[in-house]
Amino acid sequence: MKKQRIEFLFVMIIMMLGHLFVFTDIPFKWKALCVSLYGIIILVTIVSLMLENRSPQNTLLWIYILLFVPVAGYLFYWYSGQLLLKGSLFKWKRLNDREVLEAFSRRKKKKDEKRLKDHQKGFSLYLERGRIAHADTDTKTTILRNGRETFHEIKRRLKEAEDFIHIEYYIFRSDRLGSELIEILMEKARAGVEVRLIYDALGSLTLSNTDIARMKEAGISVHPYNPIKSGFFNQRFNFRNHRKIIVIDGKIGFTGGLNVGIEYLGEDEEIGFWRDTHVVLEGEAVQTLHAVFLLDWLDVCGERLVKDERYCKAIPADPDGLVHVVATGPETEDMSDHYYAMISCAAKSIWIASPYFVPNQAIRTALRIAARKGIQVRIMVPEKNDGFLTQYASQSYYPEALKNGIEVYLYKKGFLHHKIIIIDGGLASIGTANMDMRSFRLNLEVNLFLTGTASIQDLIRFYEEDLEESRRLQPVEFYKRGMDERLKESFARLFSGVL
């Protein structure tokens, strides 16, 4: 905490110096003193930054920002650059989660690998050794391809709940859709069903205090993840819960890319059509997904439900391939490794869809090598993104991809938000993690890694349909873009380490 207090003191001093320099008529010698003090603070910060032994790219990025963006650069560094604290902030969660997941894994029966190909076996073994993510076998997965399908099914299943409903969302809005779900949840709570809700305090800023009070009054246990005010001084507010989880009676689970808001139904006029994907889980994998929720519940309120057999009992379904439920976060930082491992085992094709394509060096290298080996590599992104930095930072990576024969497709029908990777038509990932640094390093995420399931064929079919709504980016066309576009890309790419 001493380091954080010093940095906070530096922020206060810098703001005071900035005010004196710009908004007062103090003599020149005092203004020169302000500049000198500012320079000393920046120099001390740069030395401290270098001693942290970050990657050379990230170190240089922050040095440039500190040097060339006076005052605002330091404030941005303080808010977004001081993220190495996560090791201590999340140490307890990392150790506790590992213990619980190990206990869950010991309950699972040995998987049948007879029908798996070598690369599928290898990837499954990698997940089990690296993340204690043992495969669930007696599991069924069903793909829901848009918001209307997803929330129709969610409402239907919620109304059928008899014992408990556990929900966790990054964005939960108090709009029409959110209100409909809240009414269902309150009705079930009044009928004696246990209802627990986790919402991310930053992502769900538009969830009204009135709705929260109404839910609590109806008997729903509601807790925010990582309230902003509680993490202001230790940078914890940078780490957000990006997961989307629903577990009903231990029988049904939902996860994927859709949050709770009318834009996910395509009803926001500014955004337009919203292309997204969700998954319905039945069987053993629901237990593993539920463990992720229960561990987050313990984190937000201290209530330990993870060892209660009532919440942890697996209910098998008809077997359909292997399903690995993998949760990652700032305490593990390994979603990038999982994506890299998938890409590296490809022999024929790599199909990726992501709203934000800001890959790290490892992912770029894996894709480049795959393309040079003659493997078909396709990347699908929205033609128009929902932010300046994400739009142009993603665009800055297209030249490297096109140069190496990677196919880049721009989805035109609306905003593409799902996060899909399909390898050789028999291995797939779907979940909450984007192809960007926030999902790799800062956010709590949960993905399903599917091996040989029938649902992969649905993902393939929907991906091919999305290709018809996309245009392939042609190298000659892209290279003719103007200097203004190139400047925007280069500027936005400077911030790729925190996007």
Automatic annotation (TrEMBL):
The chain crosses the membrane at residues 7-24, 30-49, 61-79. Its EC number is 2.7.8.-. Keywords: Cell membrane, Lipid biosynthesis, Lipid metabolism, Membrane, Phospholipid biosynthesis, Phospholipid metabolism, Repeat, Transferase, Transmembrane, Transmembrane helix. Gene3D superfamilies: Endonuclease Chain A. It catalyses: 2 a 1,2-diacyl-sn-glycero-3-phospho-(1'-sn-glycerol) = a cardiolipin + glycerol. PROSITE patterns: PLD. It is found in: Cell membrane. This is Cardiolipin synthase. It comes from Bacillus xiapuensis.
